[in-house]
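1st attempt posting a full record on here, be nice pls
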Amino acid sequence: MNQSQGYVHIYTGNGKGKTSAALGLVLRAAGAGMRCLMIQFMKGREYSELRALARLHDLVFVEQYGSRDFCMPGENRDEHREFARDGYDRARAALSEGNYSVVVLDEIITAMKAGLLSEDALLGLIGLKRPETELVLTGRGATEALIARADLVTEMVEVKHYYSRGVPARRGIEE
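the predicted structure (as tokens):
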């Protein structure tokens, strides 16, 4: 078994926990002294995990490519597409440079499903991954082609969620 081989992970599904799973991997990697980059698509707000990750500033780097506003069908589409394109360009550079042991492309699958990036663009990013880099893609709606290219796929399934009872996102738990 080759310990230096990096793999492609996909965390998808309609359940909660995709970003949290990616953050867990980043935390574990940082604990082992590995440099990690998390590029967040469709996110432009301050979340509690960003404050926690800032404490690991020498090993974990987070960049957001998203508006503070949610991407709604037909609204601000050009603004969201521009953010996604900038994030995509940054991901291409990061994967090509090889300066990070772990690269997380958080919500990039959701950006694809929203029509901000193409499936071919995501497959191209996977193709840029260096053999030693661990690459994680998160978001709802992974396609069969993405799943086929991944080495590890986890689907989060919502069985029950208090959102359906009107409970808003809570600081430190969901945001």
